[in-house]
Amino acid sequence: MLGARGVVVTDIRRPDPASIDRLAAFGVATAHEAMGRRGLADPGIRPVQQGARVAGSAVTVLAWPGDNLMIHAAIEQCRAGDLLVVATTSPSTDGAFGDLFATALKQRGVRGVVTTTGVRDTADLREMGFPAWSSAVHAQGTVKATAGSVNVPVVAGGMLVRPGDVVIADDDGVCCVPIDEVDAVIAASDARERKEAADREAYGSGAELSLDRKGLRPLLDELGVRYMTQSEFEAHRA
After folding, report:
1. Are 58 and 82 in contact (CB under 8 A)?
2. Mean pLDDT per 10-residue interval, the chain, length 238 residues
């Protein structure tokens, strides 16, 4: 497997920055639904902070467990608007990412990190405004000893990420939009937001219930759901 033997790809394709910003504004839930409920990382990757919503072009790292050598190598490949995505060849929650990495990445305009490893220095990360999503918070130190790869496809929390894909992260989790689907997902997300805005207005004004607006009453009937009074229910139970 070439990615595990050691390669740094230096000239990855990146989406238009304005498209990345539009996906960030939609957020994880909307983009994930707009893609047909695809692209979502499992809930084991969680935000270290609350209230952050970012998207960036993925610079990927495939590292060995307990080793952060390739994160050092990846920093050089990062540009403004990127988001670092770190995965390991086998599960590891050691604290491979901390405030020194965040300092270097923030200086380069990187918007955050998503990692299957542990992170540490979490109070410092929050104070400096560098958002992180990780599988663990763990102070365990790591070594710098084993070759991995930068900018190869990785799987992070069940989510396939290719270099240059747009990774969106917020309080709801993490989602990956393939680079070749960015325009389609933006269009679908925009349509979904407009529909939800109309739903929100209807529900907020009391004009309609979701059962009626979404045409769900016939489905309940088809599924055999019965409406009854409390006395009818008690009699039915007896």
Report:
1. yes
2. 72 98 98 97 98 98 97 98 97 98 98 98 98 98 96 98 98 98 98 96 95 96 96 90
Query: How are beta strands 132-137 and 154-156 bridged, if at all?
Result: unpaired
b/e map of 188-212 (b: 16 or more CB within 10 Å)?
Answer: bbeebeeeeeeeeeeeeeeeeeeee
* Burial zone of 46 (CB within 10 Å; 0-12 exposed, 13-18 middle, 19+ buried): middle
- 0.85 exceeded by the pTM? yes
Name residue 15's amino acid.
P
141-151: b (≥16 Cβ within 10 Å) or e: ebeeebebbbb
